[in-house]
Design a protein that fits this description.
The chain is of the alpha+beta class. Helices cover about 30% and strands about 30% of the residues. It has eight helices and 16 strands. Strands 7, 8, 9, 10, 11, 12, 13, 14, 15 and 16 form a ten-stranded mixed β-sheet that branches. Strands 2-1-6-5-3-4 form a six-stranded antiparallel β-sheet. A hairpin with a 2-residue loop joins strand 8 and strand 9. Helix 6 crosses helix 8. The chain is globular.
């Protein structure tokens, strides 16, 4: 964490930030968050992330005292004070301290800056392995802090040479724990439409690559795809070349995946000029 953060109502030294121990963000895991990157001191796609964060707060009945412009002002000041040329910014709104220790109440807002390390170049060159899990994330359209299942499962990922999980239910794929999913079959790109978080990187991919199908995708289709890739703020686009240890296509990152990655990087550069 960088030296300065916003906590509750002011920018302070990060070491002094604290949360009430009975906040339901802590004792019930009820809180929302969002995360975005800076490129050349510019918070890229900031409006999209702020809109999603505000929407998450409203849908979870949490009070957010700052409007979009005030949030942006705080973020720009934190970038300046932390000299955050390239890094991550995390916004967290806790569930609050309520009389019954269960219902949402007036929560606390925290905004802090972090170093950001992308996946290794080897993962981009060779792709990664995902493990299938029969699961749908609760209220998937909201970016909550509830990552209990994948955090629990992650204890075994290294031994299984896995990067993350791939959620499916009744044979239909939704998302990874922290990423959206795309498949390519015979040149046609598709991405799931249901039970997903509407990722900001996903949104930009749909803009730079026209004609992507948004539809239900079966697990069988994913396993038989020519290419699979995942998208997120912290990965951009990461090729998936194995699922449950079995090769996707020829077991190497595909040309369409590489092309979309380059388009996304070019878009980021244009915005950050």
């Amino acid at each position: 964490m960088k030296p300065f953060c916003f906590a509750v109502d002011q920018i302070i030294n990060s070491e002094k930030a604290s949360m009430h121990p009975m906040d339901i963000g802590l004792i019930r895991g009820y809180a929302v968050f969002d995360f975005f990157r800076t490129v050349n001191y510019s918070p890229i796609f900031l409006e999209d992330y702020l809109n999603r964060f505000i929407s998450s707060a409203q849908k979870t009945h949490l009070s957010l005292n700052l409007n979009p412009q005030q949030l942006e002002d705080v973020i720009l000041e934190l970038i300046k004070k932390n000299d955050l040329r390239s890094g991550g910014i995390r916004m967290v709104l806790s569930g609050g301290v309520s009389d019954n220790h269960f219902s949402p109440d007036k929560g606390s807002l925290f905004i802090f800056c972090e170093d950001l390390i992308f996946p290794s170049q080897e993962k981009y060159n060779k792709g990664v392995n995902l493990l299938t899990v029969d699961y749908i994330r609760p209220i998937p359209e909201i970016k909550t802090t509830n990552y209990a299942l994948p955090v629990y499962l992650s204890a075994d990922w290294k031994s299984k040479d896995a990067e993350d999980v791939l959620y499916h239910y009744n044979g239909i794929v939704s998302e990874s724990s922290r990423s959206n999913i795309f498949i390519v079959k015979e040149g046609i790109i598709s991405t799931p439409k249901e039970n997903i978080l509407l990722g900001i990187t996903r949104k930009r991919i749909l803009e730079v690559e026209k004609g992507i199908q948004i539809r239900d995708i079966s697990l069988k289709e994913v396993l038989e795809a020519d290419e699979v890739f995942m998208s997120s703020t912290t990965k951009r686009i990461l090729p998936v070349t194995q699922i449950d240890g079995k090769n996707i296509g020829n077991g190497a990152p595909g040309e369409i995946t590489k092309s979309i990655f380059e388009k996304l990087v070019s878009l980021e550069k244009e915005i950050a000029l």
